Amino acid sequence: MRRRWLAFIGVAVLVGAVVVPALGVELVFWTHEDPNRTAIENQYIEEFQKMYPEVTIRRVTYPSGDIAQIILTAFAAHQGPDIFNMETEDEYPYIINRRVAPMDPAAAGYANLQAVYDAYQAGTLDAVTYEGKLYGLPMELTNWCIFLNTKYFREVGLNPGTDYPRTWEEMMAVSELLVIREGDILQRRGFDFRYPYYLIFLLPMVEQLGGSFLSEDGKTAVINDAAWLQVLGFFQEWGPNGKNLGSPTYTNARKLFNKDNNSVAMCLTGLYQIDRIRADNLAFYESNEWMIVPFPVFENAVNNYGCNYYGHYYMVNAESASEKQQWAWKFIAFMLSHGEDYLLKCGLIQPTNALLSSEAYETFPYADVFAADMARSKMVMLHEYNPQFDDLLREAIESVMLAGVTPEQALATLRQKANELLQE
Amino acid sequence: MSPTSSGRGRNVRRVLGRAARALPARILIWTVLGVMAVYVLAPLVFMLTAAFMPARDVMSMPYPWIPRSLYWQNFWQAIRGNDGKFMYARSILNSLVVAAAITASTALLATLTGYGLAKFPFRGRRVVLLLIIGTMMVPFQAIMIPLYMVVTKMGMQNSYAGLIVPFLINAFGVFLMRQYLLTFPDELIDAARIDGAGELQIFWRVIIPNSWPAIATLSILTFRSQWDNLIWPLLVVQSEEMKTIPLYITRFASEKYTDEGAMMAAAVIASLPMVILFFALAKYFVGGAKLFAARKG
Amino acid sequence: MLPALVFFGLFSFYPIVNAFYTSLFKQKLLSLAPPEYIGFGNYIYLLHSSTFWNSVRATAIFTVCTFVLLVGVSLLLAAFIASRKRIQSVLQMAYFSPAVVSSVVAAAVWMLIFDPRGLGNQAINAVLRTPGVDHKWLASATMLQISTILVYFWKYVGYFTIIFIAGLTSIPTTLHEAARIDGAGAWKDFWYVSFPLLKPTLVLVSVMSMIQCLRTFSTQYVFTQAGAPRGPIDVIAFGIYNTAIRDHQIGRASAMSVILFCLMLVLSWMQFRVSRSDDVSYL
Description:
The structure holds 3 protein chains of 3 kinds. Helices cover 49% and strands 16% of the residues of chain A. Chain A contains 20 helices and 14 strands. In chain A, strand 1, helix 2 and strand 2 (55-62) form a beta-alpha-beta unit. The radius of gyration of chain A is 23 Å and the shape is globular. By secondary structure, chain B is an all-alpha fold. Chain B has helices at residues 3-17, 23-50, 55-58, 73-80, 87-119, 125-136, 140-153, 160-164, 171-182, 186-194, 199-210, 212-228, 231-236, 245-254, 260-280, 282-293. In chain B, helix 4 (73-80) packs across helix 15 (260-280), helix 9 runs antiparallel to helix 12 and helix 10 runs antiparallel to helix 11 (199-210). Chain B is globular. Classes of the chains: A alpha+beta, B mainly alpha, C mainly alpha. The interface between B and C is large, with 97 and 115 residues.
């Protein structure tokens, strides 16, 4: 038994050693599942392999909920893929720990580093710039707006074109009109938040009121209690112990929205949702009974912020051989040169100047709403402790919404734990 | 099974049965049994019926329980997959290969090791036994990363080897077989020795044929736990072709096109092989319990 | 035997030793810098961490409740079923059937049941005649703990019932007859004859179920992914996962594993110890 296994392993190693050099370069490319994107990227892989027969690319997809864990384990074991992408916040620790390779402008077909920065909208590469080096190229930059189902608005006597919620207070009032309950149980929600992505949608709400998560110097957490208490109070009011308009334990609103099955009237999501509506429910897509409006602000807001935006950047493993790194950047640049395909077929916006000034972008439905919102918004905060901060925010919101904790108590816990973390 | 055991059982039943003669006691007992049966079976019936309903019926209140018509589209969607590549069949095959290989090797190696620990008083036997029992108690999350490093260093990721090799033998199996073989009559072994049988021959000719109930039980338990394994395949498998059933199900569930009905259909399909195995080998599923019951801790 | 030990060494002992070694260092998963030796620093940190103590509490609640329910109810069911020969096999198969369903499938089914519109609310509301009440299965702290216990109990109750039935039916007939001659009723017979003789089975079942409970992870993980608050069900195994995967603190996570490991060892040792002090042997 043992001998057979040893023989098996021996053969496997031998085959690996002999076959790989003979085939040239193999690039391993891990990404999250997105059927629309898989279709076009597989096509690019084919084309690229035809142009450079010495290169083979193995593209592997993982569920978006698991990919961060899988890439992390692989990198911890020094077995990371050559190319990968994750959300900006998850990628940040890879940059500061020097696990990803600086971008190679020559391999990607740029004259120099400055040319790369010039090709993209100002500021959109800041998230992956660290100590003067660039560590990634954006596959998408996404912000979220409010999608609404006009049919349900009209059904309760609202005119979607004029009565759509502009403030959070209106959002609460409109949702109250739209909601259908059976006892306490929500059969149709008006709007519901996108739990648990609190760093993305919750922090801008606090910042609209002049609060912030971290002080300017980054040493203290939870600034401006009044702003925080107002937001926490809003969520308490929103949850099952308040007006009972929504809760993190219901099926996420953006998934139900596409079904158009009278279970949710509004949701918070990105431009890519349009393509998903088309794929999920063509009849609804073509009915024109949906529209998109900007991220609301509080009535007493002092800052006009929209929802934070985040990105997915393609990165290259610093431990890959330098030849592989060059091929990897070359391939990434090749994929990203199809900006219009990413927009038209997947609803993903690459923040290149070329795409944003193209006709395809300008005529894309509702791109203007998203662009206007992004112009007044900020990139999601980047910090080494982001995952923990996200969890602490989640704990605070869930404790006021579900566990009956007062906003004051929740804020005190949040402050204590966040500052404890910062001092570590 | 000794001839007396059924006699014993009958007697227990008779003695305990007297408690049931009083009517209030009887009502109480049947209520408890009934409530438990509903609690245990309702989720399974729900899974089965929901698999034949369109999603809007699955989530309607009150739940209809009886499908209005058999909505086979759910099963078609689950088998075909949202991408139309029919990868579910491949996942089922992978699960079968992996679970079967691990089951076979565990049965063999655990019996061998258990035999060694039970019948050969070598130095350090207690230490080895303690170490083996100790590994039963380690949460998998704790050893996940070092284990991953071992497997990737051997170049086994994304292969059957990577899925199978780390589980070729497990502590629980060794423990179970050792407990079982402790009471194996020494006379049988000695008799074989006197007949001039070698140690390996004894193992093949005497130990294995006389340990079938225990081996069968161990095999079923191993097969079941491998059928269930999610976190390890999630780490080592990197391509669609190598995915096992739990991975396929999690992926299928996370896809936007999958609704509640299709999800339940996939769940029913995933459960089928185990259900078949369960009914075919019910004797061993149930009988295995006796191995625990008859022995002191 | 040797190949088995080789495999054990490589795939079980090495990772465990590695975990213990790692627990003495301050080590970040992604960091390429050499880990910093901090002795028992991780352990000291954990003993002062409110999150860790919350995990201990969540684990204790889960383990004690599930354990008592599992052992108590399955013993009760076994006593009831063992005396009903005709339906014994049907009932034990029925109770055992959830064990056939894999965890991923079980989680998917229970998530739908605990949905506010799902069977959980419908069943409770039908029994209590309280239409339209949301019992917040995955939302309120207490209900959430109950939900995880319900799923776990559902999956394993049949298994332990069968073990107890096997234990009950292997008690020698003569003992029951003797008890009857002494004038013992059914209840007394069970309490004074069957129960003490079940002790070895009971101990084994206890150890097994307790170890299982202490290692519980997947139900809590799936519920949290689906939007349930983590605090009330942040059991130690889940905490280990979060500390390693979310916080990247592999050293600290290893220390938590070592603590959990020791806890299990001590508990099992105690249970064996208790059973040995007045062991009843009939084999």
